[in-house]
Amino acid sequence: xxxxxxxxxxxxxxxxxxxxxxxxxxxxxxxxxxxxxxxxxxxxxxxxxxxxxxxxxxxxxxxxxxxxxxxxxxxxxxxxxxxxxxxxxxxxxxxxxxxxxxxxxxxxxxxxxx
Length: 114
Ligand code: HEC
Known about the structure:
The protein has 114 residues and is mainly α. The chain is built from 6 helices and no strands.
């Protein structure tokens, strides 16, 4: 009895922790980075460190970040309504915001001046 109560409590704590994590909506570039690494790096060069260009025809994330007048809204729109050959990737709103926050975090001082 004691033992199963403990397991239930633990399950409850884990579950409410996950629910909280999903509902506190501040975009998190670190979550965005791990999403990008697992979902996007087949095509996009995610970071400048330690990788060759993944695919010459695909803009890298630093390039995307430094486009003139880039914004998280424009990045999210480009992910939700991708131009061929980029595939439509099913993502939650939070995941989209995290990805946009991560990509924008790659914007350099040069990019900000434009
Ligand atoms: C199958 C390959 C592929 C995958 C996987 C992919 N992309 Fe793309 N993506 C592309 C290509 C190709 C383009 C350029 C489309 C074009 O011609 O404008 C693109 C364009 C974009 C753009 C717009 C770039 C611009 O110039 O405005 C964004 C933002 C983007 N991708 C984000 C993502 C994110 C985030 C992911 C992962 C969730 C992802 N992509 C996964 C191939 C891919």
